[in-house]
Amino acid sequence: MNSPSRARGAPRGAGGTRQARELLRVAFGPSVVALVLVAAVVLLQLLIANSDMTGALGAIASMWLGVHQVPVSIAGSALGVMPLLPVLAMVYGTSRTTAAATTSTSWFVTRWVVASALGGPILIAALCLAVVHDAASVITQLQTPDALRAFGGVFVVHAIGAAVGVGSRVGRRVLYASPLPNWLPDAVRAAAAGVLALMGLSGAVVAGSLIVHWSTMHELYSITDSVFGQLSLTVLSVLYVPNVMVGAAAVAVGSSAHVGLATFSPFTVFGGDVPALPVLAAVPTPPLGPVWVALMIVAAVSAVALGQQCARRRLPLLSALAKVVVAALLAAATMALLGFAGGGPLGNFGDVGVDQATFAPAAFLWFAGIGGLTVVMSGGVAPRVRRPVAEPEPEPEDEDGDEPVTVDFDTAQAGADPEPGPVAAPSAERGAPASELDPEEHFVVDEPTSSSVVDEEVRGGRQGSTD
């Protein structure tokens, strides 16, 4: 009795150990990887600058919080415009580890996976806040960030990653089991296609603008003569590329982006001072010219991509339009979230970001309008099926078109006359008038058979012999 229980307990223990390792990787894997990369960058910069390691831990902790969109304050200047590339990488890493750990259909295990994905980063955030606070007591230029903002930023970043990871595993099954429409997963996929198309095409526009303004970018690189300085500018430019892409997307849908007093929209450009970052050489210079037409094409093509994804499964008209509206709302909300995360205060330059009052509504109008038109034109609306109406079968008619006469035999036996009506002619004389018919032709006379003829002759012979 004991050996079978031990045999059953061994796999359970092995499975529990493996599950514990998965939860630890979900809790600390992406955060520890980001912390190691940040530490490597900080230590490399300190070594190249021949600086001591006094504030190394404080700088590492501040940069790890900055990866989660927590503003960093140095010497009274707030750096709120944090690069989007690290936070997008953090969301991607969290979603991958969470999806890999969500292999069971048990909601108990899924809740533990989500709790691990949120609990581990919050614990590291608390440690980083303590390190920054301790370093700020030694380095007066470093300031401790707001604790509520720090915990909120870390929680939101990893919650988005956990939602994406778990949703990729069990989201479709949960939606199908819920009373919500079955086309919601298709709407989410269409929204993702629209956002990726808009960001990708905006990146292509940014790359083309950098090529056009190559001389301006070369001047921005010339502010430093050292190779390490130019390498640092290149790394910063790469990290801030998604921010510039979001600004280009805002201009493409008809909104505006601003860097301090400099404002950029598809119709007007107001110049101003911009930071000496090579990637910002892509910003347009006045006068804008006909480039706004190309930007409108970017918005239209992105909306077409969303509409094509919505048209993959044909639905009735109202359901198809509802799917497009939901996908447009999700895409516009995602772009608004990216615009909010990619903006903020930038020291003496002022506020940097997009116009949130017009960005999300303009993106929704493009996605809903052009996307809905694409669904209709691509055959995403199922035609209304009309049920055929059953017609009564025609009564059988005679060959000459006369209807047969029905006679009530009970009435005929009682001596009553049947109802007047057309009398069908006999089949032998069909079509002839009733007055020309001879009644005798309807009598049947039996033909004499051979035996009756023989009897007739025998009787006749007897009568002759008698005579």
From TrEMBL:
Biased composition annotated in UniProt, kind: Acidic residues: 392-405
Signal peptide span: none
Q: Region Disordered: what ranges? A: 387-467
From what superkingdom does this record's organism come? Bacteria
Keywords from the named record? Membrane, Transmembrane, Transmembrane helix
Transmembrane portions of the chain: 26-48, 68-92, 112-132, 147-166, 187-214, 289-308, 320-343, 363-382
Q: Which Pfam families match?
A: DUF6350
Family matches, as InterPro entries: DUF6350
Name used for this protein in its record: Uncharacterized protein
